[in-house]
Amino acid sequence: MLLPVLTAYEKEHIAERQPLPQRYLRLSDEEMDVRIAAAKAALGRRLVILGHHYQRDEVIKFADYTGDSFKLARQASTHPDADFIVFCGVHFMAESADVLSADHQRVILPDLAAGCSMADMADLEQLEMCWNDLDQMGISRIVPVTYINSAAAVKAFCGEHGGVVCTSTNAAATLRWAWERGDHVLFLPDQHLGRNTAFKMGVPLDRMVVWDPNEICGGVDADSVERARMILWKGHCSVHARFTVKQIDSIRREHPGVRVIVHPEVSWEVAQAADDAGSTEYIIKQVTDSPAGSMWAVGTEIHLVNRLARQMQPGRTVLSLDQFGCLCSTMFRVSPNHLLWVLEGLVDGVVNNRIVVPDDRKHWTKVALDRMLTIQ
Ligand code: 13P
Ligand code: SF4
Protein backbone atom coordinates (compact mmCIF):
# COMPACT_ATOMS: atom_id res chain seq x y z
CA MET A 1 0.00 0.00 0.00
CA LEU A 2 1.31 3.48 -0.84
CA LEU A 3 1.59 5.74 2.20
CA PRO A 4 0.73 9.42 1.68
CA VAL A 5 3.73 11.76 1.44
CA LEU A 6 3.61 14.29 4.26
CA THR A 7 4.86 17.84 3.92
CA ALA A 8 7.38 19.15 6.49
CA TYR A 9 4.57 21.13 8.05
CA GLU A 10 2.35 18.04 8.36
CA LYS A 11 5.20 16.01 9.91
CA GLU A 12 5.74 18.70 12.52
CA HIS A 13 2.08 19.15 13.40
CA ILE A 14 0.61 15.71 12.87
CA ALA A 15 0.67 14.93 16.60
CA GLU A 16 -1.39 17.95 17.54
CA ARG A 17 -3.86 17.62 14.69
CA GLN A 18 -7.24 16.69 16.06
CA PRO A 19 -9.22 14.53 13.64
CA LEU A 20 -12.63 15.70 12.57
CA PRO A 21 -15.09 13.86 14.84
CA GLN A 22 -17.15 11.15 13.12
CA ARG A 23 -20.36 13.01 13.78
CA TYR A 24 -19.18 15.81 11.44
CA LEU A 25 -18.57 13.44 8.52
CA ARG A 26 -21.63 12.62 6.40
CA LEU A 27 -23.75 15.74 6.84
CA SER A 28 -25.80 17.17 4.02
CA ASP A 29 -24.82 20.56 2.57
CA GLU A 30 -28.15 21.99 3.72
CA GLU A 31 -27.67 20.82 7.29
CA MET A 32 -24.15 22.23 7.44
CA ASP A 33 -25.32 25.59 6.09
CA VAL A 34 -28.08 25.85 8.68
CA ARG A 35 -25.85 24.80 11.58
CA ILE A 36 -22.92 27.06 10.58
CA ALA A 37 -25.29 30.02 10.32
CA ALA A 38 -26.79 29.16 13.72
CA ALA A 39 -23.37 28.87 15.41
CA LYS A 40 -22.31 32.18 13.85
CA ALA A 41 -25.45 33.85 15.11
CA ALA A 42 -24.95 32.40 18.61
CA LEU A 43 -21.37 33.71 18.77
CA GLY A 44 -22.35 37.12 17.41
CA ARG A 45 -19.69 39.81 17.81
CA ARG A 46 -17.41 37.42 19.71
CA LEU A 47 -16.51 35.88 16.35
CA VAL A 48 -14.87 37.12 13.16
CA ILE A 49 -14.43 34.78 10.20
CA LEU A 50 -11.71 35.68 7.68
CA GLY A 51 -11.65 33.96 4.30
CA HIS A 52 -8.88 33.90 1.70
CA HIS A 53 -9.91 34.13 -1.96
CA TYR A 54 -8.75 30.55 -2.65
CA GLN A 55 -11.31 29.06 -0.27
CA ARG A 56 -14.18 26.96 -1.57
CA ASP A 57 -17.54 28.67 -2.16
CA GLU A 58 -19.26 26.65 0.57
CA VAL A 59 -16.74 28.01 3.10
CA ILE A 60 -16.05 31.55 1.91
CA LYS A 61 -19.74 32.42 1.87
CA PHE A 62 -19.57 32.47 5.68
CA ALA A 63 -16.58 34.84 5.85
CA ASP A 64 -17.18 38.27 7.39
CA TYR A 65 -14.17 39.56 5.46
CA THR A 66 -12.48 38.17 2.38
CA GLY A 67 -9.19 39.27 0.90
CA ASP A 68 -5.61 38.57 -0.09
CA SER A 69 -2.91 37.97 2.53
CA PHE A 70 -2.28 41.67 3.06
CA LYS A 71 -5.91 42.65 3.50
CA LEU A 72 -6.61 39.73 5.82
CA ALA A 73 -3.54 40.49 7.97
CA ARG A 74 -4.88 44.01 8.37
CA GLN A 75 -8.34 42.68 9.26
CA ALA A 76 -6.79 40.46 11.92
CA SER A 77 -5.35 43.52 13.62
CA THR A 78 -8.52 45.61 13.52
CA HIS A 79 -11.20 43.59 15.35
CA PRO A 80 -10.19 43.70 19.02
CA ASP A 81 -13.83 43.13 20.08
CA ALA A 82 -13.86 39.58 18.79
CA ASP A 83 -12.73 36.80 21.14
CA PHE A 84 -12.24 34.39 18.26
CA ILE A 85 -10.80 34.83 14.79
CA VAL A 86 -11.55 31.80 12.64
CA PHE A 87 -9.15 31.89 9.71
CA CYS A 88 -10.34 30.08 6.60
CA GLY A 89 -6.99 30.00 4.85
CA VAL A 90 -3.64 28.34 5.53
CA HIS A 91 -1.33 28.06 8.50
CA PHE A 92 1.02 31.00 7.84
CA MET A 93 -1.99 33.31 7.55
CA ALA A 94 -3.40 32.13 10.88
CA GLU A 95 0.02 32.52 12.52
CA SER A 96 0.25 36.09 11.27
CA ALA A 97 -3.27 36.74 12.58
CA ASP A 98 -2.27 35.40 15.99
CA VAL A 99 0.71 37.76 16.12
CA LEU A 100 -1.23 40.79 14.88
CA SER A 101 -4.32 40.29 17.04
CA ALA A 102 -4.68 41.32 20.67
CA ASP A 103 -3.48 39.03 23.49
CA HIS A 104 -6.97 38.01 24.59
CA GLN A 105 -7.99 36.90 21.10
CA ARG A 106 -7.76 33.32 19.94
CA VAL A 107 -7.05 32.39 16.33
CA ILE A 108 -8.40 29.14 14.94
CA LEU A 109 -7.50 27.31 11.74
CA PRO A 110 -10.38 24.90 10.95
CA ASP A 111 -8.01 22.17 9.70
CA LEU A 112 -4.48 22.18 11.11
CA ALA A 113 -3.24 20.31 8.06
CA ALA A 114 -3.89 23.38 5.90
CA GLY A 115 -0.24 24.35 5.40
CA CYS A 116 1.58 25.87 2.41
CA SER A 117 4.19 23.84 0.52
CA MET A 118 6.07 27.01 -0.39
CA ALA A 119 6.32 28.11 3.25
CA ASP A 120 7.81 24.66 4.00
CA MET A 121 10.71 25.41 1.63
CA ALA A 122 12.48 27.67 4.13
CA ASP A 123 13.12 26.89 7.77
CA LEU A 124 14.97 28.80 10.46
CA GLU A 125 17.97 26.48 10.52
CA GLN A 126 18.54 26.86 6.78
CA LEU A 127 18.11 30.61 7.02
CA GLU A 128 20.63 30.90 9.86
CA MET A 129 23.07 28.83 7.87
CA CYS A 130 22.57 31.02 4.80
CA TRP A 131 23.08 34.20 6.85
CA ASN A 132 26.25 32.78 8.31
CA ASP A 133 27.56 31.69 4.89
CA LEU A 134 26.88 35.15 3.45
CA ASP A 135 28.79 36.66 6.34
CA GLN A 136 31.73 34.28 5.72
CA MET A 137 31.69 35.32 2.07
CA GLY A 138 32.17 38.91 3.23
CA ILE A 139 28.76 40.09 2.01
CA SER A 140 27.36 42.85 4.18
CA ARG A 141 24.47 45.34 4.07
CA ILE A 142 21.92 42.58 3.39
CA VAL A 143 18.26 43.15 4.21
CA PRO A 144 16.22 39.95 4.68
CA VAL A 145 12.72 40.12 3.21
CA THR A 146 10.39 37.20 3.68
CA TYR A 147 7.17 36.68 1.79
CA ILE A 148 4.26 36.29 4.21
CA ASN A 149 4.07 32.67 2.97
CA SER A 150 6.66 31.59 5.56
CA ALA A 151 6.82 30.26 9.11
CA ALA A 152 6.71 32.65 12.07
CA ALA A 153 10.31 31.67 12.96
CA VAL A 154 11.50 32.89 9.56
CA LYS A 155 9.55 36.13 9.95
CA ALA A 156 11.03 36.63 13.43
CA PHE A 157 14.56 36.21 12.04
CA CYS A 158 13.87 38.89 9.42
CA GLY A 159 12.41 41.24 12.04
CA GLU A 160 15.43 40.78 14.30
CA HIS A 161 17.91 41.35 11.46
CA GLY A 162 16.50 44.66 10.22
CA GLY A 163 14.20 43.05 7.69
CA VAL A 164 10.53 42.77 6.98
CA VAL A 165 7.64 40.64 5.74
CA CYS A 166 6.00 41.41 2.40
CA THR A 167 2.98 40.20 0.46
CA SER A 168 2.35 40.19 -3.26
CA THR A 169 0.42 43.45 -2.74
CA ASN A 170 3.34 45.46 -1.40
CA ALA A 171 6.36 43.54 -2.74
CA ALA A 172 7.64 46.44 -4.91
CA ALA A 173 7.25 49.02 -2.14
CA THR A 174 9.01 46.60 0.23
CA LEU A 175 11.99 46.20 -2.10
CA ARG A 176 12.25 50.00 -2.29
CA TRP A 177 12.16 50.10 1.53
CA ALA A 178 14.85 47.43 1.75
CA TRP A 179 17.20 49.06 -0.78
CA GLU A 180 17.05 52.27 1.22
CA ARG A 181 18.57 50.23 4.05
CA GLY A 182 21.05 47.94 2.33
CA ASP A 183 22.73 46.93 -0.92
CA HIS A 184 21.44 43.37 -1.21
CA VAL A 185 18.02 41.88 -0.54
CA LEU A 186 17.82 38.28 0.62
CA PHE A 187 14.33 37.36 -0.59
CA LEU A 188 12.63 34.19 0.59
CA PRO A 189 11.04 31.71 0.12
CA ASP A 190 9.54 32.49 -3.32
CA GLN A 191 12.21 33.11 -5.93
CA HIS A 192 9.53 33.94 -8.52
CA LEU A 193 7.81 36.74 -6.63
CA GLY A 194 11.26 38.18 -5.83
CA ARG A 195 12.51 37.96 -9.42
CA ASN A 196 9.28 39.17 -11.06
CA THR A 197 9.01 42.15 -8.73
CA ALA A 198 12.66 43.23 -8.94
CA PHE A 199 12.73 42.82 -12.74
CA LYS A 200 9.65 45.00 -13.09
CA MET A 201 11.49 47.62 -11.03
CA GLY A 202 14.43 47.59 -13.47
CA VAL A 203 16.85 45.12 -11.87
CA PRO A 204 18.38 43.00 -14.68
CA LEU A 205 18.39 39.21 -14.30
CA ASP A 206 22.19 39.14 -14.15
CA ARG A 207 22.03 41.14 -10.90
CA MET A 208 20.06 38.33 -9.23
CA VAL A 209 21.37 35.00 -7.91
CA VAL A 210 19.50 31.95 -6.71
CA TRP A 211 20.46 30.64 -3.28
CA ASP A 212 19.86 26.91 -3.00
CA PRO A 213 19.57 26.05 0.72
CA ASN A 214 20.40 22.42 -0.10
CA GLU A 215 23.79 23.26 -1.63
CA ILE A 216 27.01 24.21 0.12
CA CYS A 217 27.16 28.03 0.29
CA GLY A 218 23.88 28.18 -1.61
CA GLY A 219 25.62 26.81 -4.71
CA VAL A 220 26.86 30.30 -5.64
CA ASP A 221 30.23 32.03 -5.54
CA ALA A 222 31.01 35.13 -3.49
CA ASP A 223 31.65 37.37 -6.54
CA SER A 224 28.22 36.77 -8.04
CA VAL A 225 26.56 37.36 -4.67
CA GLU A 226 28.51 40.60 -4.20
CA ARG A 227 27.25 41.82 -7.60
CA ALA A 228 23.67 40.74 -6.91
CA ARG A 229 20.97 43.13 -5.78
CA MET A 230 18.63 40.19 -5.18
CA ILE A 231 19.60 36.93 -3.50
CA LEU A 232 16.62 34.72 -4.31
CA TRP A 233 15.87 31.72 -2.12
CA LYS A 234 15.23 28.60 -4.19
CA GLY A 235 11.57 28.14 -3.29
CA HIS A 236 8.37 28.19 -5.32
CA CYS A 237 4.64 27.54 -5.26
CA SER A 238 3.83 24.21 -6.86
CA VAL A 239 0.36 25.43 -7.83
CA HIS A 240 1.58 28.50 -9.74
CA ALA A 241 4.55 26.61 -11.20
CA ARG A 242 2.03 24.75 -13.38
CA PHE A 243 1.35 27.76 -15.59
CA THR A 244 3.33 27.84 -18.82
CA VAL A 245 4.06 30.17 -21.73
CA LYS A 246 2.60 27.49 -24.00
CA GLN A 247 -0.76 27.84 -22.26
CA ILE A 248 -0.66 31.61 -22.81
CA ASP A 249 0.22 31.20 -26.49
CA SER A 250 -2.55 28.71 -27.01
CA ILE A 251 -5.24 30.74 -25.21
CA ARG A 252 -4.25 33.83 -27.23
CA ARG A 253 -4.57 31.81 -30.45
CA GLU A 254 -7.97 30.46 -29.45
CA HIS A 255 -9.34 33.75 -28.10
CA PRO A 256 -7.86 36.75 -29.92
CA GLY A 257 -8.09 39.86 -27.74
CA VAL A 258 -8.04 37.90 -24.44
CA ARG A 259 -6.13 39.60 -21.62
CA VAL A 260 -3.91 37.35 -19.52
CA ILE A 261 -3.50 38.15 -15.84
CA VAL A 262 -1.44 36.00 -13.45
CA HIS A 263 -0.34 35.87 -9.84
CA PRO A 264 3.34 36.94 -9.46
CA GLU A 265 4.22 33.51 -8.01
CA VAL A 266 4.38 32.27 -11.64
CA SER A 267 7.76 31.88 -13.35
CA TRP A 268 9.50 34.89 -14.91
CA GLU A 269 8.84 33.59 -18.44
CA VAL A 270 5.10 33.31 -17.73
CA ALA A 271 4.99 36.75 -16.09
CA GLN A 272 6.68 38.23 -19.18
CA ALA A 273 4.21 36.56 -21.53
CA ALA A 274 1.17 37.73 -19.50
CA ASP A 275 -0.42 41.19 -19.82
CA ASP A 276 -0.54 41.85 -16.09
CA ALA A 277 0.27 40.33 -12.71
CA GLY A 278 -0.76 40.99 -9.14
CA SER A 279 -2.16 39.68 -5.88
CA THR A 280 -5.49 37.85 -5.72
CA GLU A 281 -7.22 41.06 -4.66
CA TYR A 282 -5.57 42.93 -7.56
CA ILE A 283 -6.66 40.28 -10.06
CA ILE A 284 -10.26 40.51 -8.86
CA LYS A 285 -10.19 44.30 -9.08
CA GLN A 286 -8.71 44.40 -12.58
CA VAL A 287 -11.29 41.96 -13.93
CA THR A 288 -14.21 43.58 -12.11
CA ASP A 289 -13.26 47.08 -13.29
CA SER A 290 -12.74 46.03 -16.92
CA PRO A 291 -15.23 47.18 -19.58
CA ALA A 292 -18.21 44.99 -20.45
CA GLY A 293 -17.33 42.49 -23.15
CA SER A 294 -13.77 41.93 -21.85
CA MET A 295 -12.31 38.45 -21.89
CA TRP A 296 -9.72 37.33 -19.34
CA ALA A 297 -7.52 34.29 -18.89
CA VAL A 298 -6.51 34.08 -15.22
CA GLY A 299 -3.43 32.26 -13.95
CA THR A 300 -4.11 31.49 -10.33
CA GLU A 301 -5.95 29.05 -8.04
CA ILE A 302 -9.06 27.54 -9.57
CA HIS A 303 -11.59 28.38 -6.85
CA LEU A 304 -10.93 32.08 -7.28
CA VAL A 305 -11.05 31.78 -11.07
CA ASN A 306 -14.31 29.82 -11.13
CA ARG A 307 -15.99 32.18 -8.65
CA LEU A 308 -14.85 35.24 -10.61
CA ALA A 309 -16.12 33.66 -13.84
CA ARG A 310 -19.57 33.19 -12.29
CA GLN A 311 -19.68 36.65 -10.70
CA MET A 312 -18.70 38.37 -13.95
CA GLN A 313 -21.58 36.79 -15.91
CA PRO A 314 -23.10 38.29 -17.97
CA GLY A 315 -20.76 40.92 -19.29
CA ARG A 316 -17.22 39.61 -18.96
CA THR A 317 -15.73 36.23 -19.73
CA VAL A 318 -13.21 34.68 -17.35
CA LEU A 319 -11.26 31.55 -18.29
CA SER A 320 -8.67 29.57 -16.38
CA LEU A 321 -5.25 29.77 -18.01
CA ASP A 322 -4.76 26.08 -17.21
CA GLN A 323 -7.58 24.10 -18.84
CA PHE A 324 -7.32 21.47 -16.10
CA GLY A 325 -7.49 24.10 -13.35
CA CYS A 326 -4.91 24.64 -10.62
CA LEU A 327 -6.01 23.57 -7.18
CA CYS A 328 -4.25 24.50 -3.95
CA SER A 329 -4.84 21.24 -2.11
CA THR A 330 -3.98 22.69 1.30
CA MET A 331 -6.43 25.60 0.97
CA PHE A 332 -8.98 22.96 -0.04
CA ARG A 333 -8.52 21.14 3.28
CA VAL A 334 -10.69 23.72 5.02
CA SER A 335 -14.10 22.14 4.50
CA PRO A 336 -17.52 23.30 5.70
CA ASN A 337 -17.42 20.25 8.01
CA HIS A 338 -14.29 21.59 9.71
CA LEU A 339 -15.76 25.06 9.90
CA LEU A 340 -18.92 23.73 11.51
CA TRP A 341 -16.93 21.64 14.01
CA VAL A 342 -14.77 24.54 15.24
CA LEU A 343 -17.75 26.93 15.42
CA GLU A 344 -19.98 24.53 17.37
CA GLY A 345 -17.00 23.87 19.65
CA LEU A 346 -16.76 27.60 20.38
CA VAL A 347 -20.49 27.77 21.14
CA ASP A 348 -19.89 24.95 23.67
CA GLY A 349 -16.84 26.72 25.11
CA VAL A 350 -14.28 24.38 23.46
CA VAL A 351 -11.47 25.84 21.36
CA ASN A 352 -10.30 23.34 18.73
CA ASN A 353 -7.34 23.89 16.40
CA ARG A 354 -6.02 27.05 17.99
CA ILE A 355 -2.89 28.55 16.40
CA VAL A 356 -0.40 29.97 18.87
CA VAL A 357 2.94 31.52 17.97
CA PRO A 358 5.27 30.89 20.94
CA ASP A 359 5.96 33.97 23.06
CA ASP A 360 9.71 33.90 22.39
CA ARG A 361 9.00 34.30 18.65
CA LYS A 362 6.15 36.72 18.90
CA HIS A 363 8.07 39.92 19.48
CA TRP A 364 10.28 39.88 16.38
CA THR A 365 7.55 38.35 14.21
CA LYS A 366 5.34 41.26 15.17
CA VAL A 367 8.10 43.77 14.42
CA ALA A 368 8.43 42.31 10.90
CA LEU A 369 4.66 42.18 10.34
CA ASP A 370 4.04 45.67 11.71
CA ARG A 371 6.68 46.99 9.30
CA MET A 372 4.84 45.17 6.50
CA LEU A 373 1.57 46.89 7.35
CA THR A 374 3.18 50.32 7.08
CA ILE A 375 4.62 49.70 3.60
CA GLN A 376 2.29 50.11 0.63
P1 13P B 1 -2.37 36.70 -2.12
O1 13P B 1 -1.74 37.41 -0.97
O2 13P B 1 -2.19 37.38 -3.42
O3 13P B 1 -3.81 36.40 -1.83
O4 13P B 1 -1.62 35.32 -2.31
C1 13P B 1 -1.56 34.34 -1.33
C2 13P B 1 -1.08 33.07 -1.87
O5 13P B 1 -0.80 32.15 -1.15
C3 13P B 1 -0.95 32.95 -3.31
O6 13P B 1 -0.59 31.65 -3.64
FE1 SF4 C 1 0.99 28.15 -0.71
FE2 SF4 C 1 0.86 28.02 -3.38
FE3 SF4 C 1 -1.25 27.29 -1.91
FE4 SF4 C 1 -0.55 29.87 -2.08
S1 SF4 C 1 -1.28 28.54 -3.74
S2 SF4 C 1 -1.11 28.77 -0.22
S3 SF4 C 1 1.70 29.67 -2.16
S4 SF4 C 1 0.79 26.29 -1.95
Describe this structure in words.
The protein is of the alpha/beta class and 376 residues long. It folds into 3 domains: 8-117 and 330-358, Rossmann fold (3-Layer(aba) Sandwich), CATH 3.40.50.10800; 119-237, Rossmann fold; 240-320, NadA-like (Rossmann fold, 3-Layer(aba) Sandwich), CATH 3.40.50.10800. 41% of the residues lie in helices and 15% in strands. α7 (152-160) links the parallel β5 and β6 (164-166). α4 (69-76) runs parallel beside α5 (91-100) and α7 packs across α16. The radius of gyration is 21 Å and the shape is globular. Residues 53, 68-69, 149, 167-168, 237, 263, 265, 279-280 line the site of 1,3-dihydroxyacetonephosphate. Residues 53, 68-69, 149, 167-168, 237, 263, 265, 279-280 line the site of 1,3-dihydroxyacetonephosphate (13P).
